[in-house]
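Anyone? Bumping this.
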Amino acid sequence: MKRLMVLIGSIVIMFSCQQADKPAQAVEDMEPDENAERIQTDSISGLVIDENFELIRGQCTACHSAMLITQNNASRDGWEQMIRWMQKDQGLWDLGENEPKILDYLSKHYGLKKKGRRAPLTDVEWYELKDEL
Amino acid sequence: MNVSENIKTWNRRRFVQAAALTGLSSLVPSAVLSGKHLGDLMTANQQIPGKHPDLIILNDRPWNAETPAHLLDQEVTSMDRLFVRNNGLVPEKTDPELWTLEIDGESAIKPQTFTLNQLKSEFQHHSLQLVLECGGNGRSEFDPPAKGNQWTTGAVGAPKWTGIRLKDVLERVGIKDDAVYIGYYGKDRHLSGDPNKVPISRGVPMSKALEDETLIAWAANGEDLPLMHGFPLRLVIGGWPASTSGKWLNRITIRNQIHDGAKMTGQSYRVPCEPVAPGSTVPDEQMCIIESMPVKSIITYPKTGAMVKPGKSIRFSGHAWAGDHSVKSVAYSIDYGVNWSPLAVDPPVNRLSWQHWRGEVKFEKPGYYEFWVRATDDLGSDQPMVLPGWNPRGYLNNACHRVAIKVQS
């Protein structure tokens, strides 16, 4: 009976997203970011590799790009609101006991960053401008 | 094996593995297992077909990509450089010979379906350079942040579009006196794959729909629209959030109420009707639909990070635009807004196009500088130097663009 429920649940997930997924086991695909010593990111999804990273990749990228996570920042409450919105409007399933693990991961690695009303210009790549008048 | 092959293989393997492990392979439609949809799961290392390789990809499912400012230096934006903002998945069938546009709705007198060939042969053609800017351009700067694609400065462009006036087609069908709004529908597919869900269906009030510059377009810069930009048919509604310019257009409905399609309601493409403090929760009924975009400008030359010699003049150029309005003047500052000097600015080639500005600046002393540009529209409204009013979804950031300059001998 339990196996049947799992099967039905899986079918629902697959048909609601057309792209089913499972917690990734493809360890050979995880290459550390060469530029980062401490923080390693998954070469496929760009997600930070840390506890429960496979869970996040499996649950979230079943329906949308991991880039929607990696380019965003929010408080734990903010991420929870996004999950509620996806559950309400986008067909996300009940995350059950995984939800606190997912929220822990998201608020740790993609938490709020203070930007103020205008941040300094960063990541400027300096080059010599040739065509002076 | 190159990167893209690697990724495709990985996605396919991941998927097939999942299907196999859950014992579902016999239950999954063969189209899914054959990898037909896997193209929508490409990753950041991918390029979007037909697009400039230096576009910054923000999202690969659906495709969203913005243009670095220096790539927007052309007076007329080439289609390989125009930003991509998709809400759903690109349609699979886009045969122009079979394409039709249905005009219907409560306020249509005689609903009618036109073939694409009919639209091209029965109505007068018009070519106009029109600015398309995503309502969320600049979202990345808001604090607290707004969810969604974190656009910086590059969700804007101004190609030259060719098509027919929406007005001419609506008038052929006949507009009832109670008409309020038009809403569009396109053939893009909802991310969930559910054919009954609509990824986006927005619109504009009749007054905007009936403007001379509101086009149903099949070409840009003299060529058929690229698939990524709505081939074979789209709306182009300059000066308003680009989400009103529906792609893969196959239906326009004339409504006797404000259109209530996907992303017209709730918080989408809306800002608080009254200004709110940053981080506020704003109920849906206090959110108002964005109409004309605000005055804005961009520095397209030189690219940020230029190192120059003291005492030499440097040329600067870019564009400015102002939603439904025109740009009256453009000024620059190299001392963080203490002093402003005027720049030369061209008139628009047609209404709702952007306007080019240019100037020369001499940096006398070594140091770190920022070149700031501020446009003023014909109503006298300026661009702000800090972020404009915070709003929950992060729209309408028209704070002045800045590039970094280092002067050293």
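Late reply, but here is one note on the structure posted above: The first strand of chain A starts at residue 127 and ends at 128.
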